[in-house]
Fold this sequence. Notes:
elongated; single chain; mainly alpha; 10 helices
Amino acid sequence: MSDAAEKGQAQTAHINNALPTNPAAPQITLTQAQFESLYLQPRDPYIKGGLNKILANPTPLGMAAFATNLTVLSMDLSLGMAWRDAGLCYNSGTIIFFGGMVQTIVAIMEFIVGNTLPFVIIGTFGGFWLFYASLINPTLGVAASFALGDAAAGATTVAYNVGIGHYLMIFGIMCFIYTICTLRTNFVFFWIMLTITIEAWVLAGAYYALAQGKDASDLIVAGGAIGFACSMGGWYLLAAQLFSAVNMPFTLPVGDFSEHLLVKREKAA
Length: 269
């Protein structure tokens, strides 16, 4: 063996001996309910590698971004027309960066860890926030493009409002599918997806009404109120996840569904 190889082995042995080891240390095993509460999906026995034991759990960050942006948006929608118009333009930066970009990054992290349901849902909302920011950011001039540079006139056109209404209607259908999937997780996550589905359809109705030249203020306020109720579920679930992550001496109940609803039973041999 060469001197270089012997030197390399000696360095490796030195590093390994320097690492703190404790073979007698207890190994923490999460129950099905605890795993679901932290990662928002049932434990998948077919996922190999155990990256969730090595990498940080990205789900709370995605929930923080979701709850923050939805709370701000819901308050803007439900506090009156004048406040809403000023608030949305001001909050476009928050929606772009802490909404769209952060949730997109979190979705990539969920993909790496192997959390399929959070990856799909958080990635979907990352795209939604970027889409919504493009509508309310005046520098992009989306509404203005429908009326020769006049944003106020463009926002009243049939094409503009019907287009947004169609998107929100389809987005609600997608969220409804996610809602069914959350029946395998917990009640709070189910509540979040159910209320966001209803909000999407209510706001779709508001845009359809605007396309017909009708007053949609009641529908917009109702959509904001439903979104606010949804965001409170997001804050609660965020707190429950972080309390579990730091081993608080107490936990917040989330209403575990993973072992009670729609459980696939294995056939007896």
